[in-house]
Amino acid sequence: MRPIPQALALADALAMEFSDPHTAWDTAPPGGRAWPQSLAGGAAGIALLHIERAHCGRGDWDTVHTWLASAAAGDLTAAANASLFMGAPALAFAMNAAAGDSSRYQRALKKLDDATITVTRQRLAQAHARIDRGEVPAMKEFDVIRGLAGLGAYHLKRHPDHPITADVLAYLVRLTEPRPQEHGLPAWWTGVAPNGEARPDYPGGHGNFGMAHGIGSVLALLSLTLLDGPSARGTRDAVERICAWTDWWRQHDATGPWWPGFITLDQARRYQVDPSLRPRPSWCYGIAGTARAQQLAGMALGDLARQQTAEHAMLTTLKDTNQLDMLTETGLCHGTAGLLQAAWRMATDATSPALTAELPRLTVRLTRQITYLKQRDPELLDGAAGTALALHTLGTNTAPKSGWDAFLLLA
Asked: Is 134 exposed, middle or buried (0-12, 13-18, 19+ CB in 10 A)?
């Protein structure tokens, strides 16, 4: 596929609109700016847009430094709630993306690494103790947003050969190991509702397939380690266990194959998922995340049929206007930008050129969506910074030089 100049021009315009941390939120919807150390909505996340542009020679490092300084302005947290998306690990991810192979930010990164490693070790100790007690996990134990899959994504990118990376990967393998349960529930079945809280309408908890809060993130991360290393002992078995569960619940309709966002205990007992529960094709719960995780697993296992099923799921979604119309937002998490970035990543690894042929049309859709927005939030996960990054990818048709989409576990 050729680069799309219009997409790159719009990405540049959005970056210029949000170049100054002091004015970036002036045109945002009411509600105020997020905590600076938030990768999702704060300065740490928005910095990634300017970092990618600087690596490509389309932005300047002074702007990057201004945004990183804004993110680090307050006291850094390495508390129990610190994660890839919040606190010291979030700033570490952004700063490592800025550093690349250079000597930039190394002193600050050393301090952030120490804090992130400490947080990770604490979280690992809690997770192993929970497994030893025979209790079910909370989503925030293992997911990418708040849990160890997210911390693992950082460590894998920052220092793949560090012992902490091996420890996280070993835990994720252990997370998947079978334990006695009724109805064939997997070991990662959680006892809470999808919002992470105990609710009476989810009496038996749920099983989560998504990339944001479910086993999709673990599948993607472990598959990436099989493809590029290093991988923990038992990783292939863990990937196969996750795939066996997702295969059991894979659905088919007139559009094509799809996976639920989650299933309840009642659905597990009945072995049935209502077709109306097909999620929108977003990164967080839908095809954008689940199909990419399946494609990575297929590649990692040498399972061509799995890879092609994943690519077919994405292709049929991109061709279905009704599915695309479900994405009313532009962002990476819930919107068209996440689908576009995932589709581009899948197209670069695909077994046929069919996915690539659909990307220009999806790019036009995203361009129209962001152009017609009257108020644009600058944030990374659901706002303009993430949209601009996806447009930048299509505008250059090259893999992100900063590796920014590793925080989505797309690569």
From this structure: exposed
Residue 58 is which amino acid? Answer: R
Q: 204: buried, middle or exposed (CB in 10 Å: 19+, 13-18, 0-12)?
A: middle
Q: pTM for the whole thing?
A: 0.97
Q: Please state, in angstroms and rounded to a whole number, the distance separating the CA atoms of residues 106 and 340.
A: 33
Ordered DSSP codes for 35-103: PTTBTTTSHHHHHHHHHHHHHTTSS-HHHHHHHHHHHTSSPPP-STT-BTTBSHHHHHHHHHHHHTTSS
Q: Tokens 């835990």: give the residue.
A: 171
Task: Output the tens digit of pLDDT for each of the chain's 411 residues.
Answer: 899 999 999 999 999 999 999 999 887 887 666 789 999 999 999 999 999 999 999 999 999 999 999 999 988 888 888 999 999 999 999 999 999 999 999 999 999 999 999 999 999 999 999 999 999 999 999 999 999 999 999 999 999 999 999 999 999 999 999 988 767 899 999 999 999 888 998 999 999 999 999 999 999 999 999 999 999 999 999 999 999 999 999 999 999 999 999 999 999 999 999 898 899 999 999 999 999 999 999 999 999 999 999 999 999 999 999 999 999 999 999 999 999 999 999 999 999 999 999 999 999 999 999 999 878 999 999 999 999 999 999 999 999 999 999 999 999
Distance between CA 265 and CA 203 in Å, rounded?
8
8 A C-beta contact, residue 287 and residue 312:
no
- Which among 356, 337, 358 has a CA at the least distance from the CA of 347? 356
In contact, 309 and 287? CB cutoff 8 Å: no
